[in-house]
């Protein structure tokens, strides 16, 4: 896509960086108000869904939560879970629906401000300027692989979860998946269901039941306002941004991920990875605690749902609570990669943010943008699509419409203020 065959101009009122659901949502809002803008996407729209997900990937939230501004999900399975190709098609259809002015294959390499107050964007397509800029590239940029990876035997193939596509991609032999967040658990299951012997390194990520008392848990949480809770009202405040998401899956029509059941079926579970010495992996003695804490998180959510039902005297079927199917033996464990014929490792330990191309004083000591609902401390610079930017839904399809509408008001106000300043100087 190349903005319907047009060429980049030297200047725009607004430049949106990033052509995913966040950038396109912002573009929709600007288009509705006829504000001159362009969207710059370094690859193709929907790049992360297209290029950084495995073949069997599907949403973990129901399709009805796909509610981009002006383009709610209109398919026949609102309570289903779109697969990878369907997600890409949804995003592409959205861009076409309002002729989003997207330039694909344009990477912004530097963002600064000129002496006259304009933003200057240096890109692979040349230098352009803008009155205002929206950075809509999310918060997951660089795959994180610990330095410990360098200590592993050279013959073992190592990939990051963003590179994983299918079991056939990996050499024959056993696979060690490190990390039990959403991606790690789903990839471990993908390999396990394909008949591969899997070792899974289990961390502190919580889990959630897929359904409870007759409905998807996401439906209950939405009714209770959890996706609308502002970050400053959350018990953890901004600390919630560092918390792992609950693991669950939309696969097979949607179901729980029960690691204890997988252990009974032959998947080997281990605690957190501590070290590697001459090809022997050393795990912490915290597997039982991590599994228990994950279960406790799921049960606490059910407690909240029970209370919600009772308070409102809702008619909902009763349901038996989860009973652990398997318990690990206590003690630290080790895994000799060579002796156990482990030939592949999938690192599923997250991503790091990378905003070092933005040469403006808008970051904290960790390089994270300082903002309030996406409005930075630099007049005219905004962020959109960050996890928990404002609510739990901010980094998802469900909350970006509200966030982009809020930023539109700020952008329009800035445009009006600048226009008044120019008039007063004449």
TrEMBL record:
Gene3D superfamilies listed in its UniProt record: FAD/NAD(P)-binding domain
UniProt key word Coiled coil: no
UniProt KW Oxidoreductase keyword: yes
Protein keywords: Oxidoreductase
SUPFAM superfamilies membership: FAD/NAD(P)-binding domain
Pfam families, sorted: Pyr_redox_3 (PF13738)
Highest taxon of source: Bacteria
InterPro entries per the UniProt record, alphabetical: Auxin_biosynth/cation_transpt, CHP04046_FMN-dependent, FAD/NAD-bd_sf
Name used for this protein in its record: FAD-dependent oxidoreductase
Organism from which the protein derives: Limnobacter litoralis
């Amino acid at each position: 896509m190349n903005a319907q065959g047009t060429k980049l101009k030297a200047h725009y009122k607004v430049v949106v960086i990033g052509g995913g659901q966040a950038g396109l949502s912002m573009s929709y809002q600007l288009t509705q108000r006829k504000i001159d803008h362009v969207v710059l996407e370094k690859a193709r729209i929907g790049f992360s869904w297209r290029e950084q997900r495995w073949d069997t990937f599907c949403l973990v939230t129901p399709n009805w939560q796909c509610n981009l501004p002006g383009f709610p999900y209109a398919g026949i399975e609102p309570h289903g879970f779109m697969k990878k190709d369907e997600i890409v098609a949804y995003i592409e259809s959205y861009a076409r629906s309002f002729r989003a002015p997207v330039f694909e294959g344009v990477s912004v390499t530097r963002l600064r401000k000129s002496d006259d107050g304009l933003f200057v964007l240096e890109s692979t397509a040349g230098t352009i300027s803008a009155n205002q800029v929206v950075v809509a590239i999310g918060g997951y940029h660089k795959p994180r692989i610990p330095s410990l990876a360098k200590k592993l035997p050279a013959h073992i193939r190592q990939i990051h979860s963003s590179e994983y596509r299918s079991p056939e991609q990996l050499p024959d032999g056993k696979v060690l998946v490190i990390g039990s967040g959403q991606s790690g658990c789903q990839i471990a299951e993908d390999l396990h269901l394909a008949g591969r012997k899997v070792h899974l390194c289990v961390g502190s990520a919580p889990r959630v039941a897929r359904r409870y008392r007759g409905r998807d848990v996401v439906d209950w949480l939405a009714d209770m306002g959890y996706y609308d809770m502002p970050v400053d009202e959350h018990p953890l405040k901004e600390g919630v941004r560092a918390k792992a998401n609950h693991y669950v899956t939309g696969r097979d029509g949607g179901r729980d991920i029960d690691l204890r059941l997988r252990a009974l079926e032959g998947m080997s579970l281990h605690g957190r990875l501590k070290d590697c010495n001459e090809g022997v992996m050393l795990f912490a003695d915290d597997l039982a605690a991590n599994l228990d804490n994950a279960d406790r998180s799921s049960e606490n959510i059910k407690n909240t749902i029970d209370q919600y039902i009772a308070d409102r005297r809702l008619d909902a079927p009763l349901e038996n609570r989860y009973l652990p199917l398997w318990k690990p033996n206590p003690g630290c464990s080790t895994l000799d990669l060579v002796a156990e014929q482990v030939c592949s490792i999938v690192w599923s330990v997250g991503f790091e943010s990378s905003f070092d191309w933005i040469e403006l004083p808008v970051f904290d000591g960790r390089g994270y943008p300082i903002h309030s609902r996406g409005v930075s401390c630099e007049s005219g610079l905004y962020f959109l699509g960050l996890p928990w930017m404002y609510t739990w839904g901010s980094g998802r399809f469900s909350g970006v419409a509200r966030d982009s509408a809020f930023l539109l008001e700020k952008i329009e106000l800035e445009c009006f203020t600048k226009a008044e300043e120019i008039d007063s100087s004449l």
